[in-house]
Structures are given as structure tokens and as C-alpha cells.
Amino acid sequence: MQTIGRTLKQIRLAKGFTQKEIYQGIVSRSFAIRLESGQHDLGASKLFLILDRLGVSAGEFRFIQNDYQPDTATDLNSQIMLAYDQQNFPLLSHLAQRYQASDNPTEQRMAVMAATLLVAFDHEHVVLSPAMAHLWQQFTFTKTWTLQDLKVGPVLLALAGFKHEPLPALIRRFHVTCERYVTATTDQFDVMDDRSSFDLVALQVLLVHQEYAAARAFRSQVEAGYLNHLSTDGALAQQLCLCIWNAYFGDFEQANDLASRLKTLPLSRYQPGIHSLLNSWLPRAKHYRQTQNS
């Protein structure tokens, strides 16, 4: 990984800026020369001012500094959550086994997340491993969740289910955290997509744990927030959630029709798992309705 100064120089030259245009009023000319040659470091406040002039976010700067590669945590988290969304359980198992003995704490944490998702929903009485219990403590003792925590919402739900923690309270905390990052005009970090993916899992967890009153009341939360910011995948996750909800508590025929349409959609993040997801939940919903009417 390059030094901060050399990365700043790389970006500055690529954008055609002079040193004066970028550094004037922030650091001296002599300091800027030594900084770009790797001889000096820089405090965060001045770095942010320089990045603003360069028109580069802190996240993009780190990406460029790492030779245009994502950091380990981002890369592994993306692999795990994609595998989960697509119900690719062999890949989840592979990632859990590959990184569980890693010397890197970040990789170990990701391995625990993958292992948690593997046993998430059809195993209500799982005994948490020490690593899973430690991960749950990290989440619960954190006063304020960050974007990294929002990216692993399904893991939070799975752990809460295993611990028999109140799911509605966890869901509400997740939604409140999302609201801090989104406005009517801006969703800089695609948080609404994270919320939509989380809600799809949340409804399933509520149903698995037979919290039917909370599941019935959940529709209003699924349709809340700034839905105009949803991407195609985010909107699809919401529609899948509403399809399952309608199958249980709304118009079953309408849910069946929506399920048929969703199964024929062009390839998306969720496509490999759409059929198995709907084929699993619609029969359960039908059985639930029959038991309610008997």
C-alpha cells in the first residue's frame, strides 16, 4: 500500500492539478513536496480538506491507495452477503472454513459471520459457539452502529434469534440507524438497499420464530423510508418481502401472481435464490392460513 502522500500525488497528477491549487492554505509548499515524496504524514483534518479539493471521498482514496482494490473486510463481506442472498451455502461453508483459523482478526470475524448465516433460519435452537457469542457482544455493546454494521444486518438477526432476544427492538434499532444516513434527497451510502435486504430477512426470521403479530405489523416498516433511493435490487428485495407478507396476511392469490412475475425477472443479485425462497415460503404461508381457519 502506498503512503498517503504518494497517493495524493498520484490523484493530483491524474486530475491535472498543481501543488498550489491543492495545498495552498492547508500546508506549506515545502511540506507538500516532502508529503508527496513519502517523507511526511498528515493529520486527518488536513487530509479531508485536501481530498475535498481533489474531489475524492475518503473511501475512494483508500481504494486508490490500495492499488484500486477493496480492503479485506469489504471484499469478504461482499462475498459472504452475495452468497447468502443467492442461497449459495457451499460458498458460505467454504468461506467460513477458509478463514476461521486466520491470523487476521478481520478474516476471523468474517468467518464467524459466514458460519452464523449457514445455520440461521431453520435451526431455532442452535447453541452459539464462543466466537458467535463474542460477535453478538460486540454488536450489542456498541452504542452506535455504523455503516459496516448495517452491511451485516442478516447476521445481527440470526444472532438475535439464537439468543432469543426481542426481534422488534433489534429491527427498530436497525431502522433508526439507517435513518441517520439518509435524507429525502441523498442516500450517499446506498443505505436504503441495506435496509431493504435487512427487511427481507427480518420478516423471515419473525415468521420462523412464530412472532406472527410482529410479522403482521411489519408491512408498514417495509414500506417506510425514502423508497425513491432504492436500486433495482433494493426494490426487488422489497417486492419479495411484500410477496411473502401478502402470502401470510394479505391476498394470497395476489401473492401468487407476484411470485410468478418475480420468478421471471431478468438476472439480478437475488435471481439464483428467488425460486427457492418463494417455493419455500408460499407453502408455509398456505399452511399457516389453514391452521388459522381451522
TrEMBL record:
<dbReference type="InterPro" id="IPR010982">
    <property type="entry name" value="Lambda_DNA-bd_dom_sf"/>
</dbReference>
<dbReference type="InterPro" id="IPR001387">
    <property type="entry name" value="Cro/C1-type_HTH"/>
</dbReference>
<dbReference type="GO" id="GO:0003677">
    <property type="term" value="F:DNA binding"/>
</dbReference>
<dbReference type="Pfam" id="PF01381">
    <property type="entry name" value="HTH_3"/>
</dbReference>
<protein>
    <submittedName>
        <fullName>Transcription regulator</fullName>
    </submittedName>
</protein>
<dbReference type="InterPro" id="IPR053163">
    <property type="entry name" value="HTH-type_regulator_Rgg"/>
</dbReference>
<feature type="domain" description="HTH cro/C1-type">
    <location>
        <begin position="8"/>
        <end position="61"/>
    </location>
</feature>
<dbReference type="InterPro" id="IPR011990">
    <property type="entry name" value="TPR-like_helical_dom_sf"/>
</dbReference>
